[in-house]
Specification:
The complex is a heterodimer of chains A (821) and B (315).
Chain A: H1 4-8, E1 25-29, H2 33-36, H3 42-51, E2 54-58, E3 71-73, H4 80-93, H5 99-105, E4 118-119, E5 122-123, E6 126-127, E7 132-133, H6 160-168, H7 173-180, H8 184-195, E8 204-208, H9 210-213, H10 218-232, E9 242-244, H11 251-256, E10 263-264, E11 268-269, H12 278-283, H13 301-313, H14 338-346, E12 352-356, H15 360-363, H16 367-375, E13 379-384, E14 411-416, E15 425-428, E16 433-437, H17 450-468, H18 474-478, H19 491-499, E17 501-502, E18 506-507, E19 513-515, E20 533-534, E21 544-545, E22 548-549, E23 570-571, E24 599-601, E25 606-608, H20 677-681, E26 691-696, H21 710-715, E27 720-724, H22 725-730, E28 738-743, E29 746-755, E30 761-763, E31 766-768, E32 770-774, E33 809-816
Parallel strand pairs in A: 1-2, 1-8, 2-3, 8-9, 12-13, 13-14, 26-32, 27-29
Antiparallel strand pairs in A: 4-5, 6-7, 10-11, 15-16, 16-23, 17-20, 18-19, 21-22, 24-25, 26-33, 27-32, 28-29, 28-33, 30-31
Helix pairs in contact in A: 4-7, 4-8, 4-10, 14-16
Chain B: E1 9-12, E2 29-34, H1 43-51, E3 77-85, E4 91-99, H2 107-111, E5 118-121, E6 126-128, H3 138-142, E7 149-150, E8 157-158, H4 164-168, H5 174-178, E9 184-188, H6 189-205, E10 212-214, E11 224-228, H7 248-279, H8 286-298, H9 304-310
Parallel strand pairs in B: 2-11
Antiparallel strand pairs in B: 1-5, 2-9, 3-4, 5-6, 7-8, 10-11
Classes of the chains: A alpha/beta (821), B alpha+beta (315).
Chain lengths: 821, 315
Amino acid sequence: MASLAPTFGRGAMTNTWQDIKNADLVIVMGGNAAEAHPCGFKWVIEAKIENAAKLVVVDPRFTRTASVADYYAPIRPGTDIAFLSGVIRYLLEKDKILHEYVRAYTNAGLIIKEGYAFEDGLFSGYDSEKGQYDKSSWDYELDDQGFAKVDDTWQHPRCVMNLLKTHVARYTPEMVSRICGTPQDKFLHICEMIAETAAPDKAMTSLFALGWTQHSIGSQNIRTMAMVQLLLGNIGVAGGGMNALRGHSNIQGLTDVGLLSNLMPGYMTLAADHEVTFDDYMKTRLYKPLRPGQTSYWSNYRKFFVSFQKSMFGKAATPENNWAYDWLPKLDIPLYDIIKAFEMMNQGQMNGYICQGFNPQQAFPDRGKIRRGLSKLKFLVTMDPLDTETSRFWENFGPQNPADSAEIQTEVFQLPTTCFAEEEGSLVNSARWLQWHWKAAEPPGKAKPDIWIMSGIFHRMRELYRKEGGAFPDPILNLTWDYTNPVEPNPNELAKDMNGRALVELKDESGAVVKKAGELLDGFGQLRDDGTTESGCWIFSGCWTEQGNQMARRDASDPREAGIAPNWAWAWPANRRILYNRASADPAGNPWNPAKPIIQWNGSKWVGVDVPDYGPTVKPSDSVGPFIMNAEGVGRLFARQMMVEGPFPEHYEPLESPAINVLHPKVQSNPAVRVFPDDRADFGTPAEFPYVATTYRLTEHFHFWTKHARINSILQPQEFIEIGEALAKEKGIAQNGWVRVASKRGFIVCKAYVTKRIKPLMVDGKPTHVIGVPLHWGFTGQAKKGYGANTLTPSVGDANTQTPEFKAFLVNVESVSGPLV
Amino acid sequence: MSDLQSQDYIRRSATTMIPPDARSWEDQVAKLIDVTRCIGCKACQAACMEWNNLRDPVGEFHGTYDNPLDLDPKTWTVMKFTEYENPDGNLEWLIRKDGCMHCEDPGCLKACPAPGAIVQYANGIVDFISENCIGCGYCVKGCPFDIPRISPVDHKSYKCTLCSDRVAVGLEPACVKACPTGAIMFGSKADMTDWAGERIVELKSRGFENAGLYDPPGVQGTHVMYVLHHADKPGLYADLPENPKISSTVEFWKGLIKPVALVGIAAAAVSGFLHWVIAGPNVVQPEDEQEAEEVLEANGFPEARGRSQRTEHPT
C-alpha cells in the first residue's frame, strides 16, 4: 500500500465494509466490486436502498458493477490519473472543497522548498542515466526549530495548495477527454456528482482494487483519489474513505506481517546495506514531529523494533549487541520483488525457489519468461493445497504449456498443504479485522500444515548449522523456538507471540504494577524499548490478551447501527474500525455530519462509537493533527519524498500504449520505472499490436483455485476474451468464434465474446479499441484447458511496489478457424 | 422430488379427489427476485446445485455469460444476461435468474396425465413427484415459461422445487440464502408484494418510470415474482413472457373438454357395468390364449408358451 501510507500514514482500507452503507456516493473506479467482491458489495446495495446513495462506475468495460450503477462512464485503461487530476482541477476551480477540513487536516498550507519544480513531465532532481530522482527538493521548508513552515491563508506561491493548482491546471475537461477517451459530458457529470460530497454532511466512498494497483503508475492512481478525498473532507468520516478491497482473504495480513522483501512485521522497514550500525538505522526512523506539539506515532519506532527483536531472539538480543541488529538481513537494492526474482532466475543468479501458496506460472507476467526461469532452477519447492501450473510447469500439456520436459533438469518437490478449512488460525480482511477461524475437516492424504513444513525445514537447517558451522550461523542458532510442540507450533502460541508479553514485571510512572512477568500485553501502548517487552508484530498487539483471544469474538451487535460492531473479531490498530476518525469531527471537536458521528469531544475526552484514532484526552485546542502516523499530523496532498516518481501524481502512459503522451511527448511513461533490458526488448509497438488489452477476474472464479472445483467450472467453463462489436466486425470475428490474441510475448487461442459492453474510445481523435482478457484458465483443474492471460502481459511493475502492469498493454487479434491441438 | 408434504396438497395432477389438506391454513409463500439489485454472480446457481446435488458436465463457452446455456434436468436455475441499449443510447445489462415461476394456476399440473406426478402445496409451491412421473412431457407443453426438462437418463421431468424440502422445515430456499446482495427474498406473498412496492417507489425515484412487479395475472399470479426496471417490457429480460397463459390446447383438453371427457369415461364405465350385469364378465377363451402365444412366439418370445401354461386356470 505504497500510496495510502504516504498520504495518510497507514497502508490499509480506511473504513469497514459495513460502513459503506453510510455513503452518499459510491465510486467504483480501478476495481469491479460487484464482480470481485460480491459479498461485500451488499453494503453498496444497502447504501443505495437505505441511504439513497448513488453509484458511479468508471471502467473500460460496462461491468457487473456498472449493471447496478446510477451512472457509468468509460475510460481508456491506464489513464485514471488524468481523469482524477481533472476532477481535482474541477473541485478547485469551482471551489467545491471542504475548506476548514483542507486547512486544518491536510498539508495544503505547508510551504515547499524553493528547489522544487515540475517541467515537461519531470519533477526536479531527475537523473536520466539512472532513471531515478534525487528527491531532496520534494520537501517542506523548515523553520529554525525544524518545523515545517505554514501559510494558512494559502497566499504563499510555494504552499502546497498553490503548487497543486498549478500542477493540475493542464487537466482541463478537453484534455481529460483527449487522454482518457471519456466523453466530456460524462466526465463533467461525474465531477458534479463528486463535488456534492464536499458538503460537511455528505460522504463519498472510493472502492478500488487491482484495477488501480496493477499499473506502472499504480500507486499514483490511488494517491490521486486519496487527494480528491482529502479535498472533499471524506477521510475519517462515516461513509467515506479510501477502501482498498483486497483480492485474497489474507493479503492484508501478508503486508501486515511484512512478507515483502523490504519489510518487517508491522510496517517497519528492513535495513539497507549502508545502514551499518543500529544507530544508522534508527537515525532515519525517528520521525520527529514536523509541527509543534504534534503526535507522531512512529517516534515510538524503537519500542516496536526492540520488542520485535526480543520476540525473535529472546535472551540473545541484548543492549550490548544492539538487540541483535546485525542478525537481520540488509538490502543491497530497494526490493527483491517477484519480477526481479524471475529476472535473476533467467540470468542464472537464483537457482533454488521455495514457492509457498503461490502460482507464478499462472499469476506473474510473461508466462514464457516464468517457464524459462523455472527451467533453469536446480530445485523448486511448491507448497499448495492444489495442483498448480507452477508445480507442473515442466510437463507438456500441448499448446497451453509447450514445455520440452527432456530439456528441463529442475528437481521439483511438490508438497501438499492443508487449506484454510483444515487448520485453525486468523485471517486479516480488507477492513484490518483479524478473524479467528477453526479447523472444520481433516486434511486429505499426506497434506500437512505450512507450519509443520516450515518447522521441519528450520530444524534440519539449524541441525546442519550446528554440525557444520557455516559462514553466519548466529541468526539461525539464536532464533527462539519456545513452543510446546517444536515440530508443529500451535497457531494459538504463534498468535500470542504476535500480541507480545511482558518479560519482567512492568510498572507505570507511579510505580504501580501494570503487568506481571510473562503476562500478555493489552496493546502496543505497553511496549518498551529497553528489552522488557516482546511483540512479534506491534500493530497486532491487543489481539490475544489476558482476557483471551480477541480475534475469536463473534458479537455482531452494532449499538447505533453505525456499521461498527466493536466486539466482532478484532481490528488493528487497537480495535479501531475507522482510521483517522479524529477527522470525522471539525477542529472544535463537533462532528461534520451530526447524523453520523464517529467520535466527538465531550469537554473532557473523545467519545463515540469507535476507539479514537487519537490521544483520548487530547484537547481540540491543542491543534494536534488527526493523521498521527504522519510527522506533520496532516494528510498529504504533496507526498514529500515518499513516492519514487513524484510528490504529485502525473499522467504517464503505460509502457505499452497506443497513444503519445500529449502532456509531454518526451516523457511518455513513468520516468522512474524499472525495466530489465530483456523485458524492454519484449515490449510491442502500436504498429504491430494496435489494440489495448486489460486483464480481469470473473465472479464465477477465485483466481486460479476454483477451476479445480466442478461447480465453478460449470459456471464459467472455458477461456474467452471480450471484444466490442465494432472491432469484431472490422476483424471478421463472429460471436463465439475462435480468435488468436497475440502480444509481443506470446499468444492465446480462445473463444470470443462479442459484446456491446466494450465500445471504441476516441483518444486524441483516434478510435481506440479495448480487448478484455479474463484470467482464470490454465492447464490444471476441471475447467477446459486455457493458455492464461499472463501469456500476454508485459514484465514491468509499478515503480514503487513492482506490482505488474496487468491492466494496460498492447495486443493484436485475428479470427482463426479453431483451437490449436 | 420429494413427497414430504402430502398433508399440504391443494392440487394433485390427474386426480379429482384432493387429499385432506391438513395444513391448508399455511401462508402463501413467494420468492421475490429484484433484478435491479442482482449482480449476476451466480451464487444462486451454485447453491441450487449444491443443495439439490446436481452436477452437469463442465460445458463450453457459448458467447455469453449464461452457463449452462439453458435450464436442463440438472440445472434448475440459470442467470440470463441481456445487453440492452435503451432509447437514450445508454447500455443496460439486464440479468434475470430464470427458473420455475410456481404459478398459482400451474399449466404443468393441468397438463399432467400421471396421477400425483405434479402437486401444489397449500403454500403455493408447485412440485414434481418423480416416482409418479411417466416422462410424457405434457408438463413442458403446459408450461407458459418453458421450464420443465425431461431427463434423457431416467425419463422424468425436473425443475426448481422452490426448495420445498427446506421450506417445509422453516428454511428459505438455497438460492435465497446464498444471494449476497439480497436480490432474492423469500417470505409470505403478501410481504413480498409489499416489499416490492417499496422497491418500485425507490426505482421510480431513480428515473425508472416503468418499474414494476411481475406477477402475471394470466396464471393467476406466481409464487416467484420479479421486480423489473422495465415492467412494461418484460420481454427485454431474456424473453420473459409479456402475458403468460396456459396453452389453449391444454386449457381445451384439460379445461372445457374435461367434463365432456369425464362424461365419456363415465358412459364407458356404465356400459361396461351393464355388459357385466347382462352378459357376465369377459372370460379369456382358450382360443384367445392360443392366438396370443402364436403372436409372441413369432416375435421371438419362446418361453411364452410355458408362461401361459403356468397361468392356466380351470375357468
